[in-house]
Amino acid sequence: MKTAKNSGVASDGADRIAENARSLGERIILGIDPGTTVMGFGVIRAQGPNITLITADAIRFDPLHDHTLKLREIFRRTTALIDLHLPDELAIEAQFFGKNVQSMLKLGRAQGGHRSGHTA
Question: pLDDT tens digits for 80-120?
Fold first, then answer.
């Protein structure tokens, strides 16, 4: 998983904090509910059987923007969440679409933007 050190963010203190937490069996998990208009996310801390909510929110994107601009913004926002919280794991909600193929294709692209942010 990305750390502040290898993401280009100069933060030795954040690296030490993350390493200390990991040595105690703590995991930070970023969950994303992808969307091209609204992207929900939550960050939790799991340590043994204990789970603590760190943050949860939704990011809204301008519905009138060109789809490629939305994808760029999805990538930027996802990368920023990863750089801020330094998660050990990433969970992206799988979507189900019955008949709307266009929505399925758009959301597939959005999920790709989230995953690209995870691997960048």
Answer: 999 999 999 999 887 655 566 566 666 666 666 555 555 55
CATH number, span 12-119: 3.30.420.10
Of residues 85, 22, 21, 94, the one with CA closest to residue 57: 85
Distance CA 98, CA 83 (A): 35
Convert 62-95 to b/e letters by CB count within 10 Å (16 or more is b). eeeeeeeebbebbbebbbebbbebbbbebebeee
Domain boundaries, the chain: 12-119
Q: What is the pLDDT of residues 73-91, one digit of tens each?
A: 889 999 999 999 999 999 9
Q: Which two tokens stand for residue 113?
A: 């933007």
CA angle 39, 43, 64 (to 5 degrees): 10
Coil, helix or strand at residue 81: helix
